C-alpha cells in the first residue's frame, strides 16, 4: 500500500513539474482592425457579391518579417464591405479577388504585368478601399412585379460589360434569378423551387448585353410571406463567379 501511495505521489509530482516548466506563448493576440469597401471603379458604388467562399476575398501578405510571406485570406460581405478585427499589427501587401479584372496579372512566362495591390501599415483601426472593374454590371429595371393570376413574381434586369479591357470579355454563360426567404441570397443561398436560371450557349448570351431581360419565378410563391430577390450574371472566365444586383424584398399578399 505504501509503495502504491509513493508511486501515485511521484506521478503527480512529475505532472506538476511538467506543467510548471511548460512554455507559454506570450505574444499578444491579434487585435488590429482592417476595414473598407470594394467599389466599382466606374459607379463608385460598392460591388455586390455573395457571402462566403464564392464571393470576394481579401489577400493579406505580412511583410514585417518576410519578403515572401504565406498569404492570409478572409472574405468580404455580400454588400462589398469587409471588416476583420483580428489582424496582427504590421506592414502588409493587400489585394482583393473576385468577379472583376484581377489586380495582379501575369504574362505567358509568369512575369507580373499588372500589380495594383496596396502596401500599407495595419495598426489600430485601419481603413482601405479598392476600386475594381467588374466583369459585368447587373442592374435592376423597375421593381419586382407580383403576378396575381399565377402567384409568381417577375423581374427585369440589364447586364453590360463592366470593363473596356477586351481580355476580360468572355462569353456570358447565364443569368440567374435567386429567390430566398433569407436576406443573404445568392448562388450560395436560394430556394430552387422558385429560383430560375437561363443558360446561354456559345455567344448567344452576348446578344443580351444591354437588353432588358425578364425573369419569372418557376413556381407560385406562398401567400403572406416575405422573399428576397437578387439577379446574378457571369462570364466564362476563371472560377465563373457571379456579378450581382442589389437585394430587393417583396411581400407576397
CATH topology of the largest domain: Immunoglobulin-like
Distance separating the two termini: 81 Å
Largest sheet: 5 strands, antiparallel
CATH class of the largest domain: Mainly Beta
The string of secondary-structure elements, in order, is HEEEEEEEEEEEEEEEEEE
CATH architecture of the largest domain: Sandwich
Structural class: mainly beta
Low-confidence stretches: 1-22
- Calculate the mean pLDDT score and round it: 91
Q: Specify the number of helices.
A: 1
What's the total count of β strands? 18
Q: How much helix, percentage-wise, in residues?
A: under 10%
Strand content: 35-45%
Taken together, the total number of domains comes to: 2
Overall shape: it is globular
Summarize the structure.
This protein is mostly beta strands and 253 residues long. It is built from one helix and 18 strands. Helix content is 8%, strand content 42%.
Characterization of this structure:
- The structure is a single chain.
- By secondary structure, this protein is mainly β.
- The chain folds into 2 domains: 32-132, Carboxypeptidase-like, regulatory domain (Immunoglobulin-like, Sandwich); 136-251, Immunoglobulin-like (Sandwich), CATH 2.60.40.2060.
- The protein contains 1 helix and 18 strands.
- The strands form 5 sheets. Strands 13, 14, 16, 17 and 18 form a 5-stranded antiparallel beta sheet that branches. It has a 4-stranded antiparallel beta sheet with strand order 3-2-5-8, with no helix packed on it. Strands 10, 11, 12 and 15 form a 4-stranded antiparallel beta sheet that branches.
- Residues 1-22 have low confidence and may be disordered.
- Residues 1-21 form the signal peptide.
- It comes from Chitinophaga chungangae.
Amino acid at each position: 500500500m505504501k509503495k502504491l501511495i509513493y508511486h501515485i505521489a511521484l506521478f503527480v509530482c512529475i505532472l506538476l513539474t511538467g506543467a510548471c516548466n511548460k512554455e507559454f506563448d506570450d505574444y499578444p493576440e491579434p487585435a488590429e482592425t482592417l476595414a473598407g469597401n470594394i467599389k466599382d471603379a466606374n459607379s463608385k458604388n460598392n460591388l455586390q457579391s455573395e457571402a462566403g467562399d464564392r464571393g470576394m476575398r481579401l489577400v493579406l501578405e505580412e511583410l514585417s518579417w518576410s519578403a515572401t510571406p504565406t498569404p492570409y485570406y478572409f472574405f468580404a460581405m455580400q454588400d462589398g464591405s469587409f471588416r476583420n478585427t483580428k489582424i496582427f499589427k504590421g506592414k502588409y501587401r493587400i489585394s482583393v479577388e473576385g468577379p472583376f479584372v484581377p489586380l495582379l496579372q501575369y504574362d505567358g512566362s509568369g512575369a507580373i504585368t499588372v500589380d495594383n495591390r496596396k502596401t500599407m501599415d495595419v495598426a489600430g483601426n485601419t481603413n482601405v478601399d479598392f476600386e475594381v472593374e467588374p466583369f459585368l454590371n447587373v442592374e435592376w429595371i423597375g421593381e419586382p412585379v407580383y403576378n396575381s393570376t399565377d402567384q409568381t413574381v417577375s423581374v427585369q434586369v440589364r447586364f453590360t460589360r463592366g470593363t473596356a479591357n477586351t481580355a476580360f470579355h468572355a462569353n456570358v454563360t447565364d443569368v440567374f434569378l435567386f429567390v430566398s426567404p433569407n436576406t443573404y441570397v445568392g448562388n450560395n443561398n436560394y430556394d430552387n423551387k422558385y429560383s430560375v436560371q437561363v443558360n446561354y450557349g456559345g455567344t448567344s448570351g452576348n446578344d443580351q448585353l444591354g437588353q432588358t431581360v425578364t425573369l419569372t419565378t418557376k413556381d407560385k410563391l406562398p401567400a403572406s410571406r416575405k422573399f428576397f430577390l437578387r439577379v446574378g450574371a457571369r462570364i466564362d472566365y476563371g472560377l465563373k463567379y457571379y456579378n450581382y444586383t442589389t437585394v430587393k424584398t417583396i411581400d407576397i399578399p
